[in-house]
Amino acid sequence: DTEVTQTPKHLVMGMTNKKSLKCEQHMGHRAMYWYKQKAKKPPELMFVYSYEKLSINESVPSRFSPECPNSSLLNLHLHALQPEDSALYLCASSQAAGGAPNYGYTFGSGTRLTVV
Amino acid sequence: AQSVTQPDIHITVSEGASLELRCNYSYGATPYLFWYVQSPGQGLQLLLKYFSGDTLVQGIKGFEAEFKRSQSSFNLRKPSVHWSDAAEYFCAPNPPCRGNEKLTFGTGTRLTIIP
Questions:
Q1: Which SS3 state, helix, strand or coil, does residue A21 take?
Q2: Contacts of A42 in chain B (CB under 8 A)
Q3: What is the pLDDT of residues A68-106, one digit of tens each?
Q4: Which residue among A24, A80, B56, B78 is least enclosed by CB atoms within 10 Å?
Q5: Does B90 contact A42 at a Cβ distance shorter than 8 Å?
Q6: CA of A40 to nearest chain B CA: how many angstroms apart?
């Protein structure tokens, strides 16, 4: 299995809703990432997990809450989002964990989130 | 400060013509270098990567890239493009620092293919 699987592919939620994005990989990768991508922009890093521990938080608002239950799963819990949070949310994984950043990342196809 | 520049926002090329997408970086040390491609509404796919050694690297889908240290560049090339190559292309340097996993992307180049 050489894929990163993200669910759902599309999500529409209201500003008072609570929802979760899920990401799964079975490549034995020990680093996992959440990126946010607005239209016609490059992906922007949100969070990095290394060996299931949060290692980087790029000053993301607390309405986004990541969780890494095990080495294969990464969740992003959403609560009280704003319309400007509408974007493509990408999950990625890599072998790199704490010091070998020369590996490429494997990306999922993303969740297209619309906040209404 | 570390930065990456993709000077061309949008390039249009005829099918069968050659292609070169530019990427310049500014880092204290030579970073690891990647090119990713993103088809509309999709995630990113790794085309190729450079760590060290031979400065001309081959990737998937017939792409290649050449690392030029003197120019701080890592330009992507393809001898003959296909309509399916229409996509967004991102250059992504990764700092060669132990423990630094912040892969960042250039602003991207959108490639349009005309018949």
A1: strand
A2: 90, 105-108
A3: 999 999 999 999 999 999 999 999 998 865 445 566 789
A4: B56
A5: yes
A6: 9
